[in-house]
Structures are given as structure tokens and as C-alpha cells.
Amino acid sequence: MPNTPYRVVQWTTGNVGKSSVAAIARNPLYELVGLYAWSPDKVGKDAGELAGIEPLGVSATNDVDELLALKPDVVVYNPMWINIDELVRILEAGVNVVASASFITGHNLGDDRDRLEEACRKGGSTLFGSGVSPGFAELLAIVAATACDRIDKVTISESADTTLYDSPDTERPVGFGTAIDDPNLEPMAAKGTAVFAEAVRLVADAIGVELDEIKCVAEYAQTTEDLVMASWTIPKGHVAGVYASWQGIANGRTVVDVNVRWKKGQTLDPDWQIDGDGWKITIEGRPTVNMQVGFLPPQDMIENAKSIEDFFVLGHIMTAMPPIHAIPAVVAAAPGIATYNDLPLPQARGVAG
């Protein structure tokens, strides 16, 4: 650990970015030295103001050169979607990156992954991606597997009622709101959840299995009534439930299965039932290890909440923190794209109490 805090530039202040700013500001391990704003209306505003906390004395800018001139140790990269040219520019400047923007191993990026690797080599920098799912959930499975002397299959199953999750821009690409008989529906879940293929690869690498194939099996459920939500409506006969199972296959059998089941409303056909929000992780082997993972708000949050929307920040925090807690290991890592398999076990330093 260094004697001085890690110098951090925060990239964007969307929902996850706001939680990142707040966490960085509270943690003595880190010093927020800069903030990139994608929206012109945020330029010049204080980072604390944008994050909904006290002023921090750091103004947002969209001048990338200005931010890189600050010589930060790391960029916390939280945009909704990855921008390859942007990342190459940061990495070539010698700045490490921890990202939550749909990046685990980068293998879905094709030739762009090579560009990122080359940028890391040129800059002597490291790129790491995580989040809550995929990311944190896979780390739990990797740790659970260390109790076994034989592993037959690893399954990570995510389930969530997303009725109150109001993000059509991220939900439509996986099929939500599409007519159940639309001929273009079938591949949407696979395309929209492709980052989970990288999660399958991560787990397979962790247990030393070379996969022959990674495939996606998708299912959809329709709503039998119009489903009205905060900012959009899913009409009757359109998709309000999405299931995607990403399967890693070796020697003709599935050895890793990372799947998600997301539903909206109570009028689904088929009538999918889920047992709460969270993850069920199963390591089939000797022994078989079962893990049920959920999340709840702390008591002070319950007491101070004014509406159900106040609890949505928990998901943002859980997405923001795995990359942030990896910063010390990423800064110390060899240049290149790093995953949990390349780093020591992350530690939640600076947040106790």
C-alpha cells in the first residue's frame, strides 16, 4: 500500500458513477483529483454536487487532455457502454482503468481487444473490469470452488423482479418490450447479455478448463396485460420476462452455466416464479457447495428512506464497489488486461465503520 492516497479520476456520473464518487470521497485510500463529464450541462459543476453529496472542490470537465495531465493512478470508468477509442487514449497515457461498463475479459470485442492490449503495453497500464453481475457473482463462485477436490459443474443463477427498475435503454436491447412473435426477438437476449459469455470464460479459466464452445440458450415470457411503468409501458403480448443461459461446454458437457432470469409484473405467460432477488451459486463436485446470495438495506437506510426509489442505490453501489476495491491490486499489476484470475483477492479497505 502506498503512503499517499491513490489519485483517481472518475469517468461519468450516471447512477453508478454517482455511487463511485461518493465512495471515493469517503475512502482515505483514494483522492478524487478529476471528473469527466459526458453531458455538456455537467461541465463546470462540482463533483459532489453531481453525486448528491457535499462539495468536493473538483469540477467536472470534458477535456480529456486536462484530466490525463493530472497524472492519476487510475480512472474509475463507469459509462453505460464501453468506448474503445476513449479507453485506448487513457491506457496509452499510462493510466490504469477499473471499469464497470460491460467488461470482464474483453473477448467479445474481437480485434478491439487487441487494441486495448496494445494500449496497455504502450502505456505500461492495466485494464480491469468487474461489477456486481457479472463480476462479483463470479468471484464468489471462484472462491467457493476452492473448497472442492473435484469440480463437475459451476452454475451461477441470477433472478430479479425488475418491475421497478426503470431503464428502458438498457432493457430493450435484451428483448423487453418486443412483440413475442417478432421474428427478430430470438437473438436479442444473446446479443444484449453477451458480456456473460466473458463471465463464463472467467470461471472456466479459474478452474482450469479449456472450453470448446460458449453458447446462449434464451427464453422469453410475455405479459398478458399492458404493463405500465414509470417511464414506459410494455403492451400486452410483448416481452416482460427474459431468461438467458450462457453455457461453457467442454468434451460435450456443460461445465459452466451463468444464467439470468429477469421478470416484470405479475401477468407473465409462462408464469415464471422467482425466489427473491439475488444469486444462487452451485459448485457441483466433491463436495457440492451451495451459496445463496441476497442483499438488504442497512437499518439507517430503512429509517431514512422516503420511498422505494431510495433503495435503488444499493444496486448502483454493488456495481461500483468491486472495481473500486480492486484499485490497489490493479495499480500494482503487470501491464495488460487483468481479470480476477490475475489479481490477488480484493480487500474492502477503507470502508469499515
How are the secondary structure elements laid out?
Layout: E1 6-11, H1 15-26, E2 30-36, H2 47-51, E3 60-61, H3 64-68, E4 74-77, H4 84-92, E5 96-99, H5 111-123, E6 126-129, H6 136-144, E7 150-161, H7 168-171, H8 188-192, H9 195-206, E8 213-223, E9 227-228, E10 233-234, E11 239-250, E12 253-263, E13 268-269, E14 278-286, E15 289-293, H10 299-304, H11 313-325, H12 327-332, E16 336-338
Parallel strand pairs: 1-2, 1-4, 2-3, 4-5, 5-6, 6-16, 7-12
Antiparallel strand pairs: 7-14, 8-11, 8-13, 9-10, 11-12, 14-15
Helix pairs in contact: 1-11, 4-5, 6-9
Count of helix runs: 12
Q: Structural class, from helix and strand content?
A: alpha/beta
The CATH architecture of the largest domain comes to 2-Layer Sandwich
Integer average pLDDT: 96
Low-confidence residue ranges: none
What gap, in angstroms, lies between the N and C termini?
Answer: 20 Å
**Main sheet summary:** 7 strands, parallel
CATH topology title of the largest domain: Dihydrodipicolinate Reductase, domain 2
**Overall spatial form:** globular
Number of domains: 2
State the name of the first-level CATH class of the largest domain: Alpha Beta
Encode the helix/strand succession as letters: EHEHEHEHEHEHEHHHEEEEEEEEHHHE
Strand content range: 25-35%
- Strand arrangement in the largest pleated sheet: 3-2-1-4-5-6-16
Helix content: 25-40%
| Rg calculated over all Cα atoms | 21 Å
Number of strands: 16
